[in-house]
User: Fold these one by one.
Assistant:
Number 1:
Amino acid sequence: MEEHPDILVHLGDFEVQVLYLGIRKGIISREVALRAAKLALEVKHYRKLLERLMIRLYEAYPEKELLEAVCSILIKGERKNGDAFLWYEKALKEGVNLTRLYEYFLFALPDDYAHLLPKEVLLYFSYDKDLDRHSRSVLYRNILLYMNPSSELYQAYTRSMESFAMEQLFKSRINSRMAVIYEHMIYKDMIDGPVAKVLPGILKSFRIRCGDPRMKYVIVRYVELEAEEAYLLEDQAAYVPLYSDQIVIIFQDAYGNRYLDVKHIKTPVMDKPELLEQCYRVYPDHPMLKLQECGKLVSRGVENDSQAELLEETMVQMRLNPIFERQLLQAVTDYYCRGADDKDGVGVFNCTYLVQLDKKSLDARQRQQICETLISQNHMQEAYHMIQEYGSQYIQPARLMKLCTKTILQQLFDQDDLLLNISYRVFRAGIYDSVILDYLCEHFNGTVSQMYEVLIQGVKEHVETYDLEERLLGQMLFTGCCHQIDSVFDLYMKRKSTKESVVKAYFTQKSIQYFLERQEVDGRVFEYLKQALGGSAWKDNLPTIYTLALTLYFSTKDKLQEEDRQLCKNMTDVLLEAGLVFPYTRDLSKHIPIPEDIMDKVMVEYRGRKDSHPELQVRIGPEEDAWHSEDIRRIYQGIYVKQKVLFEGETMEYRIYDAPEGSRVLAAEGSVECDQKLEGKENSRFACLNEMGAALKSRDDGRLAAAMEEYLKKSAVLGSLFPIE
């Protein structure tokens, strides 16, 4: 090959291997090297070994032809790294004329290339504009940074740079090279509507460089927005428009895992506040600029209608984060509510927005604010509908009073449960008028204490109370809450036409209180009972409790008038016939005759539940030491009575067990003795027997003989009157 270089006509794998071995051994001549370089220009495809061969040949023989061959192989291999750039740069300096050399010089131009491109490159591309986007951005950046703007060559590039800048701007492309181009080629006068729509995204862009090579995406979430944006990390960097400081930056790896604690550097790409201001002036409807302005308005408050409209439009047009949307809504409602408060409250303020606003997304305080504003401007129907939907717990009583008064009059005092509830709240707050009080008296039904409060206030203020006294009296009687029943009954009797059933129920309750509950009652109750029971047909029409209460009352009196004594006798006869005998029955003997079988016995009374089954244990001293059980009979309701015959000197001890809560307990205990001191008992034969016992005990023979004689007389009289065959 050295002797006959012409035999080298092809650079196949074998020839390349032979030549590479020869250059390593230093046995390849200059002539063979140039022959190989010529053949290398004809090779159609890149081979790594061929590149290494050409570089070794050039190092051995630094000829222009070999330099051209090296660059040709690199271009065919589309080599664009820093090492390739050094060869392209050397080729330009040596004046190598190679197809696409200028293009690949530009492709491989490093980022830290800090001076103007060679003039021949600039001249070449001033005529040949067929470059890809990347190469054009590299070329134009270099020109804008390092070429004199007044030069003729700069002027030749101006139109193409402007065109390229606008083309990339409308595609929202941004990186460090495009930032330089935009800064030099975009002016305020160029900003029209279409430009203003896209330019803010460029001006607010940041370069985010991630320190973790595993991350593939940077995710940006605005606290104001519901959606998120994802940007691909290229060479661990991404250019991201950030319109707000209120953002969350998240990094995502290839598997979809997200991280918040990844180290990164955030650098603004451009600093042109004047362009941003011009964009907002030209196109104030830009979504992100509107969002930024909305944030400022939320902080300082809405001051005019246009600002309020801006917030309203933003809420309609953008998918906002619910929290931020509520903040905007709060700012708008605050503005309108302040405007309404500044008026004189006669409906002159336009409440259309507040009326039409969807209240579902508002919180309770916002609804309260709107409702109070509607009330102040006399939009009563709309305000009342809001209260029906969302309640009124936070609305001021003064506003509620106005609403209640107007609504009651509009509804012509028709009953409305919600309106009644609100009216009572106003009444309890002490802020009401005669309309509200009149409405409550006519329709309100609450607890006994609530209705009593309304009634007393209505009486004090001379308001028509309708049937409130009767309703309240009936509720007291039904529920048993009778603390103020006497005063209510007095009002009922004095102010209204009464119903017999209500009056009868009242006195029944008072009789129950007196007889069953042992409460003190007014003397007028007994006067009524005497009048009622003094009629001819009282046995059939009046409750038994009347008779029990009145006879108990008579038993407490020392003396009775003849009319009362006769009434007492009649009632007692009825009770005795019904088997209603109580300990107090014996006390009636001072007024009327009582049968001996009742007077001869002592009685034990126990008050428990109507459905209970008390157990009575007794022992009679001094004879008995052991306790034994005896029956105790229920006489009336929960009253149980045990009657027992005791003789002189005997004492009956008793214990009563009950199970009020399911477990057996000692409910009562005590003792009773034979008692001969009650009036009327001395006429009975049993009294004579007791008298004989007492005489024997005292060894009084005279007393004993008299008692025996009296006993024989009474027995003879009874035998004569009631002979036994």
Number 2:
Amino acid sequence: MKKLLSVLALVFAFMMFAVACAAPAQNEEPAAQPAAEQASDAPAAGADSGADSAPAPAPEPKTGSLTIGISINGVGNIHNRHMFEGLKEVCEGRGHKVVAVNANGDATQQVTDVENLIQAGCDVIVIQCADSFSMKNVVADAASKGIYVISQDAGWIEGCSAMIQLNYFSIQTDINMMLGAEIGYQGKIITTGHQDNFALRAAGYVHDAMITEWGFEEVAHVQTTYPGTVEVTYKGLDSALTANPDVDAIFTSQDLEAIGAIQALKEHGLYPQVKCVGIDGEVEVLRDIKAGGSVLCTVISDLDGANEAVCDTAEKLMAGESVQKYISVPYDIVTIDNVDEFLVKAEEEAAKYAEAVMQDSRFKLLDLNTVPTTQYDTDLETELTYYHDFHSYANSTETIWPYGNPTDMAGWGRDYPERDQNQNVMHSYFRASDGLMNSFEEDDLRKERYIVHRTTKNYPTTGVSGSMPQTYGKMKVNTSTFKPVSALVTFGRSLRLSEAYLNYAEAKAMMFLNGGDDNARTQALSALNTLRQKRFSAEGYVAKDISDAEELVNFVREERRRELCFEDHRWYDLRRWGMKEIKHIWYESENSYLTYTLNENDLLYTVPIPKNSLDRNGRLQQNELGGKRAGVLTTITNEDL
């Protein structure tokens, strides 16, 4: 694909790359010995300074099955996940044994991971997304033991045998020159980034060079980190934009920072006029580009080709053949002009994994027509309402992985009833929303089988007495107390096959929306109808046939709401669909209620950073999560009932 490169960008990029990167260019050299012989002055990790530092001889040439170790710093973005999982798939597909470890963003842990890979007897170790400075000694240790090391997207690590790398200097030059042109190469800018790895350092060098060359006024710098990049960027920019509301652009370094910037710009009323840029091709960023939002462009690299090159290099090294010391990974700049192509590719990836689950013979959709609604109680000699356990292998052919205690998952909804003056239960504090209940069609079996209807004396605002839809379901329930039952091998949640059908349908519907592929529309409807046929009575089922792309996407989203209700999906679905306005009602009594509103793109959509992340990274600060909301009081009159 044609790259959006200018002559100036190329010259600038390669000059910077030559200065900052001491690695050899794309030349071929024989690999008759490990890289330790080229860096013999680097002591092995943990070595005695007085010990013999002579390099180990090259291992005997080896072909056929190899043991390849893969160490990655973290998989918190789409680029890293694709690189890590993709390389495992390529290597295993060629018959190699793979030992893969993820340091979850901890540079010290990654050093330990590589030490463990050395002890595991790997023939070749691939280091991905590392802090190249911290890896120097452990790479030297590997080389001293006759183990080849390949750097992938981690910069040049002294002692490695080859580097397969995106040219981040070139990329950052390209996208930041586009951003600079957008504001006429002048004005106030905010920069974001950190120094913890090669890719982000490159961004900082380019930002500094452009500020020096064109005289941008850098009014603030937001120091980011990993993990928690989006939240840290948002919080830093929230403060920076408060002080500098007249900023012209934000020079972000990658997509997770761009996502944080989007949130902050919306909060300050500067969206979409203030622009930023990204790298990695996160779907949320691609959608922002398509919508004409604040992200001007992002970058997607040829990770499939890069992973093939890594495996090729490992095989050549072990066979004693010559390898290229530096292999540049091709990339595409994604703008509003070509974003649809990449959105379709992203949805294809999602559909591929969902389809693999759908085709797994171990699981099949459960026909709700086979699930009764009543069960005879021999002790009471009467029929009682029966609530099926959908989260166990024994009771559901859809269960892929059960987890969670029913009490933990439903206790908040079951244990807080409203009582009258005699302490008789009147109604639950929490109940299923009218919006959800009204979304079910008349013959949809899920309305009765998925949702517990608790006996109650009063049901405010509807005039209905006798039952109330609860905020839990799909689990074993005691029908005398209407409380979920905790027992051996009972669970409150599970990964279910129906989610794979909905993931597949959503991916295909988005492909139809973004690319106009009518075959994708047909595939989305096929998955939806296959699922829905198991959710309706035989006489009530009618196959859906939707021709409008937006209508199809919206229908899939509503189907997710119905099928996955009370399984902890809804909040995250709403976040990724644009953080729409939500209204919740709190019943103070049978005669009044309070309405609480979560506004579109509300600060309260921000998720707290987990405590274990805060404990492991002292530079992280907890997100500002928004203030307490006041509800709007409504009094219920007889006319309302």
Number 3:
Amino acid sequence: MLKTTLVGQHARARMRAGPFVRSTFAQIIAIWRDWVDRQALRWGLYGPICLAFGAAAYLVSPVEPPVWAPLTGLSAAVLIWLGVRRAGGVAAFVALMLVWMLGGASIAQIRSLGVAAPVLLDRIGPARVEGVVVAIDAGRSSLRIEIEVTAIEGVPREMTPRYVRISHRDAIVVGPGRSVTCRAILNPPPAPASPGDYPFSRDAWFRQLGAVGFAVGRCDPLATPPSGDPLDRAGLWVAAIRRAMASEVRAAAPSDGGAIATALIVGDRSYISPEDAESLRASGLAHLLAISGLHMVLVGGAVFALVRWTWPLAEPLALRVPTVRVAALAAIVACTLYFFVSGGAVSAQRAYVMALVGFGAKLFDQPAISIRSLATSMTLVLLMHPEAVVTPGFQMSFAASGALIALFEIWRARPATGNLSRAIAWIAGLAATSIAASTATAPFALYHFDRSAALSIPANMVASPIVAFWTTPSAIAAGLSAPFGLSEPFLRSMAASLDAVLMIARFTEANSPLIDFPRLGAAAMLFSGVAIALFCIHRGPYRALALMPAILAAGLWLNGGRTVAIVANNGEVFLRQPGGWASVSIWMSQSGLDPLAVDSAVTRWTCNPTKDACSLDAGGAQFRLIGSMSDEIAAASGRSRPSGEPCPASVVLEYRVPDPNIAPRRVAPCEFIGRGGVVIEALEQGNRLRTGSRDGLRPWSPRRIGDQ
């Protein structure tokens, strides 16, 4: 289709040109034909990529498009495609990709409108909150309870959020599925803490989470009649079973590894300490905390292998029903049960769809590991949850999966013979998969978390065999023996294996070099995604097409600014230090929320001011905090503290870069409260400010919600 149009366009030019030009034309056409022939069955893979880009474009847009705009554009694109598809060529391909892209934007907007629910507009409390516990998770310093609300004291029914999340420092006396009453201070879901920070308010909108806060005292059980909705009752029943299973696992395996085992079996991370969670993140092993494709494939793969080995023993059945299809069906059933037991989170949904597509392909004698299966999984996930496209879990899991499939396509063309060659190939394959997965996920880790685990590759090389050959068999054995009450030794074995993984994580964290990576901006992350997509979609030498966007991404990254200071949306100031971040503010309100602007390595900066300033070297910039809470300094600065202002108006942050020819600049933190904050970046030849915005033009914006 594509090559026909190109040949027709240049046929006359070749006839009129000289020998050299004709030869050049012939070479170009030959390359084009070879490219199109090799990709004949893979051009359609661009569709899901365009679907993802369309959904992401809607979600990150600074303004909300009219309801009719994406659907109207989609209709026009479909008409254009219908008009040019018979002619084929580049025009038809571009029109079809435009249909996919506008379809992604339309689906995202429809999803946004469909999940609309009341959101708290102002801080309230302490107020009585009644509802049903749906989930319990671990925060940095407390447990977090998600409640499906039935009533909030002082809030009209039509303005009551559907879900709220409350930080709870005391012991939890109830589990999911139980009604509770709490006294809590509630706040609207916070806007991004600083420019480029994680937009929690958008995530909360799609989760119908209308308020967050902290409990004053303890949440107590509440006697209420059960819900009349059969689906609600079924969901609460499953939640109660999951919590009971979590308690049983913890009782059988009370170690730190047992806490991780609880997270892997039932998706309950409330038993994992913040220190262990940080060790897993710093070592690049945090994927063990979420129910992901790895766990789903290990469970389904173990059941598939078990049935495939044992089914031929029943000869009459094996002669009538193909072994592979029975094994695939058993794997699908096992993955389905695991999906419901794990809680059905978005990451688990994504993993379940991928496993379903993979094992479903075996039912119809199709290859389970293929880039087309991955594209199908991506399409189904985006149709159900288009908002997931901008989350790090979605991006990192599909990038890693795509890179591993591309590596598998390259690797299977080089079969090994002999035991020694196979052993070497197995070790090399383990290293190659770790390198491929770490490389594919590194851009997204740098963009979302401003860091990348330096020793993640060796950590995963050591931990992966433990998970595959020790953790997974122990988990399968525990599941099979649980109905007979014999699961305790297998749960202890599983916990011991995860204790070993945790030991690897702690060792890796303690010995990882402190590398101050430059900030990866949105443009560099976009080019990185394009490079990964091109590498996965194309075959053979044409994978080299990924080099161009990869080089552009690396250039933008290496020449980007280094963040040295952050003024958060609430006025709090953070300065980068060699060992982490230091907070220099004293006026931040305590709302029960974890800091969103920086990582957990936050210390308090204290100094003895000389006259009216404190000085600090942030490694690349000299900072002075001018002013204090004293009325004397406020009067000397000529500025007074307005009534009700959440921070002292006299405080000014002055910073100077090493170049003496560049004059220092001053930033007043109070001026950025409620305006999205500001980020100070040190560049080679100066400095740069990145300011935020209030974001009042989207459905998840508090101002927009208040207008509705």
